[in-house]
Design a protein that fits this description.
It is a single chain. The chain is α+β, with helices and mostly antiparallel strands. The protein has six helices and 14 strands. Strand 6 (about 75) and strand 7 (about 80-85) form a beta hairpin. Helix 1 packs parallel to helix 6. The chain starts with 8 loop residues before the first strand and ends with a helix. The model has no long low-confidence stretch (mean pLDDT about 95).
Length: about 250
């Protein structure tokens, strides 16, 4: 592998940093050790968390790629850094739910654990100041966040990604209850013929215990960030167990 130069930092969020490379179509993503919940009202640091999430996301994004689901992930660089495609992030969070948990129960009084079939797909506006409000497709389009065609594509990709994720997790004895995804518009500077690349919607960001609600399929033991959100146990041990189950 050719040496990849880590350039200036372009972005820092709650859990990751992004850096330029010499290739305008590629960035370096760094996973941080920070833990946040409830719009970063609750914060902490967990040593090694960035390395675990980097490996988990690489394993899952790699498996999704083998199944034909394109994402920004290119390759692992080291414990906490991955090489990713540079995209324009669509400012929407997409949540797919197979059981009722979290905000769905708080908003509507639905009993936690209620099965949802077919799965429910919700979209929210990525905006911490507004507390990531949920949107209809029409309001998201009215706000200029995405076109209706893009939203339909994003929801379709979220559902097929979810089906593959459920399969991947279950093979390792893990049950997926719900998850959150982000998507981006990838428009490479040149295509394989040397002309401008056509923009397309692809899976972005990460797929980890930060973004998935997960339990051990046999015991019901939690393996996700709910351990931190609600002080339910040792979040570090939960994350390590998930990585071990996935073969990391």
């Amino acid at each position: 592998m050719a040496e990849i130069n880590k350039g200036e930092m372009l972005y820092e969020g709650k859990a990751k940093r992004l850096y330029r490379t010499d290739n305008p179509d590629e960035l370096i993503m760094e996973f941080k050790d920070s833990l946040t919940a409830f719009d970063a009202v609750k914060k902490d640091t967990l040593a090694g968390k960035g390395a675990i999430n980097n490996q988990v996301s690489a394993l899952l994004m790699g498996a999704l790629g083998e199944a034909g689901i394109e994402s920004t992930f290119i390759e692992l660089l080291d414990e906490t850094h991955s090489l990713v495609k540079s995209v324009e992030i669509v400012p929407l969070e997409v949540i797919v739910r197979y059981e009722a948990h979290g905000s769905l129960c708080r908003r509507y009084g639905i009993e936690a654990g209620t099965l949802i079939n077919p799965p429910l797909v919700e979209i929210g506006y990525k905006n911490d100041e507004l507390h990531d409000p949920f949107l209809t497709d029409e309001i998201a389009a009215l706000m200029g966040l995405a076109t209706l065609d893009e939203i339909a594509r994003i929801k379709y990709l979220a559902l097929i990604t979810g089906e593959k994720l459920k399969e991947i997790y279950l093979k390792q004895g893990v049950k997926l209850l719900d998850f959150k995804l982000e998507f981006g518009r990838f428009a490479p500077r040149t295509d394989k013929w040397g002309g401008p690349g056509q923009p397309r919607i692809i899976l972005a960001d990460e797929v980890t215990a930060d973004t998935c609600r997960l339990v051990d399929a046999a015991t019901g033991e939690k393996l996700d960030k709910d351990l931190f959100r609600f002080d339910l146990g040792d979040v570090g041990e939960g994350y390590k167990k998930l990585l071990a189950k996935l073969g990391g």
